[in-house]
Task: inverse folding
């Protein structure tokens, strides 16, 4: 099967931010997944370099437009290289082949009567590079999309007969309910088309930075409308209008776009394709908009999130994971360091990282790092079949672009692993001499980690390659087929001791968006009310939120409890904090709790205290409890949580 996946091509009027990175991450994930499945895959990204907006941006910096475009285009490309984006082609609309292809398309549309010459009079938004009829403008003649002032354009223009495609487009949407994803966006597009389509002005004469219409039309002052030029990149990249070398990748499997440019992709683009007699893409996927700390990102506010900066502080793949896990595809998302840190600590560090560390630690202690799957099926049929059921169900979420659901489901495999360790307590079995059983549990979890890593590979390629390497295999189509499709198990191997992949992050690592900027945009009303309210809390001894987060409090599950001989107060507990081995904690709670009543229950543990000795016994944490005149009670989670979950 051939799979063609595209991102929008990015305007070169400014540097990339996390909004651009998000589209690219999703496309890269889909492309990598497609390759993992063994499909022939072509992944296209690039830059959109023509139009009035770019011309004006270059002028402001007093740079030749081409030089300006070269610089920003290179910066996008470098960024994607730094993020290891696996694009097969990086197209630029200033590429000669592209220009020729667009002219061929224009000529074809002209020949078949879909382009005609007339006169345009109306409003144009330079920022959106869009024409608007007066009826759609906001007060003061402002752009309905971005709110900026529009300019009145009065010029001779060639028009594309968009109105002719109203009916065919509607029929297409009706017949292909998953053409637009998420499906909820389909209605929006359909009602726009139902409202009537005007023919589209597709040339301009008032500026020069663009592709000229074909020479044989003898009209050299006409430059093509930037959206016609830009949309055509998806086929000129495949050789349209030239050698057609890769046209067998067309139609695209998925074309990713932000919701702001869905209209161009779901209306104009299919109409252009119909006019050229080309099939339509299978899916147009429109994602939501990213904000920062609840605010729209903008250069003037100074709050644009630079993906490079985030990657430097938190890791490129952690950012990738966060963006895809945090937000349902199609909905808007908010970037904040706190949200990123929470995801990293809970999903990556606790659930995945700790599981791997535990397996490395246990295999070191019990079998000198050798892991053998020989008894896994004998002792763990249920866990294996539960995990395979999860893994089998994942594909559908990718088809619908629901990456957050994909990851949410995938994480169930780690829960199965963590639960298996808690329930089967290999350290107890080793003590009891049931070595086979203990090693089978360790091998089960190693296999679960391997299988989950394969399915996480397209989202975290380098991290999962490291995990796979530690587990003695490589993530390839062959291992995907073996471990996922055929439900095979790892062959005997020696696990590698690697340093923890996901160290916990305790406090923000990047400077926050400038304060003044945040205040400038904060809603005025509630702020005033808040300002008037005086705090009644004594200021003495107060700590900041960052100081609070220096204390790591975790949910622990009590695995064993016994009375400390010769002590009326102390109990000795073995508490699972989701780490390689349980911690021993000596707690002064014997007067209030019997040892038996604690086994299997959960507690809150201060996990980053220096170990201490109580009555000569090591204590590796402190259990939280509340005490008043009626006695002492433990502080516990309201509902069971995974061992090691952080409390904050
Ligand atoms: N050049 C056009 C696309 C032409 S495709 C034939 C364009 N470029 S853009 O650079 O302005 O935007 C590119 C993509 O980035 C769009 O899909 C847009 O939705 C996305 N984003 C820009 N800012 C964004 C956020 N703040 N959040 C999420 N995505 C955003 O439009």
Result:
């Amino acid at each position: 099967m051939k799979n063609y996946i595209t991102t929008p091509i990015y305007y070169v009027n400014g540097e990339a931010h996390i909004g651009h990175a998000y589209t690219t991450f999703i496309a890269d994930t889909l492309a990598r997944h497609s390759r993992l499945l063994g499909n022939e895959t072509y992944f296209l990204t690039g830059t959109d370099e023509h139009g009035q907006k770019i011309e004006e941006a270059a002028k402001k910096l007093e740079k030749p437009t081409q030089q300006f475009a070269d610089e920003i285009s290179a910066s996008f490309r470098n960024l994607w290289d730094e993020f290891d984006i696996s694009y097969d082609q990086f197209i630029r609309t200033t590429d000669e082949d592209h220009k020729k292809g667009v002219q061929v398309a224009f000529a074809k549309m002209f020949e078949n009567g879909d382009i005609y010459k007339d006169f345009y009079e109306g409003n144009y938004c330079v920022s959106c590079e869009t024409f608007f009829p007066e009826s759609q403008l906001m007060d003061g003649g402002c752009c309905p999309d971005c709110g900026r002032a529009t300019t009145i354009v009065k010029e001779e223009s060639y028009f594309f007969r968009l109105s002719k495609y109203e009916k065919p487009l509607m029929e297409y949407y009706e017949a292909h309910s998953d053409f637009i994803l998420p499906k909820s966006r389909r209605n929006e597009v359909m009602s726009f088309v139902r409202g009537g389509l005007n023919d589209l002005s597709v040339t301009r004469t008032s500026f020069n930075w663009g592709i000229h219409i074909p020479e044989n039309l003898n009209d050299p002052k006409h430059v093509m409308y930037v959206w016609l030029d830009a949309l055509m990149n998806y086929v000129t990249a495949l050789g349209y209008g030239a050698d057609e070398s890769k046209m067998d990748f067309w139609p695209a499997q998925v074309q990713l776009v932000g919701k702001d440019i869905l209209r161009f992709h779901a209306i104009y683009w299919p109409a252009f394709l119909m006019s050229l007699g080309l099939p339509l893409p299978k899916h147009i996927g429109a994602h939501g908009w990213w904000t920062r700390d609840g605010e729209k990102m903008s250069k003037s506010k100074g709050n644009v999130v630079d993906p490079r900066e985030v990657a430097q502080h938190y890791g490129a793949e952690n950012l990738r994971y966060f963006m895809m896990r945090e937000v349902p595809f199609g909905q808007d998302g908010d970037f904040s360091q706190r949200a990123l840190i929470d995801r990293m600590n809970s999903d990556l560090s606790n659930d995945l990282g700790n599981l791997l560390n535990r397996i490395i630690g246990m295999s070191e202690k019990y079998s000198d790092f050798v892991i053998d799957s020989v008894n896994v099926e004998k002792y763990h049929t249920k866990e294996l079949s539960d995990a395979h059921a999860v893994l089998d169900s994942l594909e559908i979420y990718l088809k619908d672009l629901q990456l957050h659901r994909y990851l949410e489901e995938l994480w169930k495999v780690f829960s199965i692993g963590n639960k298996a360790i808690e329930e089967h307590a290999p350290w107890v079995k080793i003590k009891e001499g049931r070595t086979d059983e203990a090693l089978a549990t360790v091998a089960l979890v190693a296999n679960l980690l391997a299988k989950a890593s394969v399915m996480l590979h397209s989202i975290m390629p380098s991290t999962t390659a490291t995990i796979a390497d530690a587990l003695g295999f490589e993530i390839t189509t062959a291992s995907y087929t073996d471990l996922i499709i055929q439900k095979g198990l790892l062959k005997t191997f020696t696990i590698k001791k690697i340093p923890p992949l996901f160290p916990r992050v305790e406090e923000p690592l990047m400077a926050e968006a400038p304060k003044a900027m945040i205040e400038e945009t904060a809603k005025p009303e509630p702020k005033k009310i808040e300002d008037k309210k005086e705090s009644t809390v004594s200021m003495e001894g107060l700590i900041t939120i960052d100081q609070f987060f220096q204390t790591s409090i975790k949910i622990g599950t009590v695995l064993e409890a016994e009375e400390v001989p010769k002590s009326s107060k102390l109990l000795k507990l073995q508490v699972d904090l989701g780490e390689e081995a349980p911690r021993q904690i000596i707690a002064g709670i014997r007067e209030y709790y019997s040892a038996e009543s604690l086994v299997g229950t959960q507690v809150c543990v201060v996990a980053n205290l220096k170990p201490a000795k109580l009555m000569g016994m090591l204590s590796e944490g402190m259990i939280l409890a509340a005490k008043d005149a009626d006695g002492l009670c433990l502080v516990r989670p309201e509902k069971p949580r995974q061992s090691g979950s952080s409390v904050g």
Remarks:
- Confidence is low (pLDDT under 50) at residues 515-534.
